[in-house]
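As a warm-up, study this chain.
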Amino acid sequence: MTAAKILAQFPERVAATVSSLRQILLRHLKGITEQPDPKANVIGYSYGAGYKNLICTIILSKKGIKLGFYKGSELPDRKKLLTGSGKVHRYVEIDSEEDIGDPALLELLEHAVQARERRLGAG
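Now compare it with the structure written out below.
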C-alpha cells in the first residue's frame, strides 16, 4: 500500500497536513526512502534497513498526526518540541501547516540525520 492509500483513510484536513509534511521530509532528507506501513498507519523515513537507519516516522491516528523520532530522547531540542515518555522514542505533535514550517522542526531532522551517522560510525 502506498502512503496515498493510507492518507485516503483520514479526513481531508489530516491528509493535506500529512502531504505537506511528506513534501518537507522528502525535500530536506535527500535520498531518503519512504516506507508506508498500512497496518500501523505509519510512514517511515530511513536511509536503509533496520532501526539504525531510521530517521523519523509519520504516525497517523484519530487523535492526530505525530512525527516520531527514533532515539528522539537523545536529540538536542532547544525549543522543546519533542514529547512522549518512552525511553527511546519521542515525537512532535503536528497540528497545522505552521507546525511543519517551524525552523526548529527542520533542526530536529538535521540532528536525527547526524545521530544516524554517529550510530553508523560515519560522523
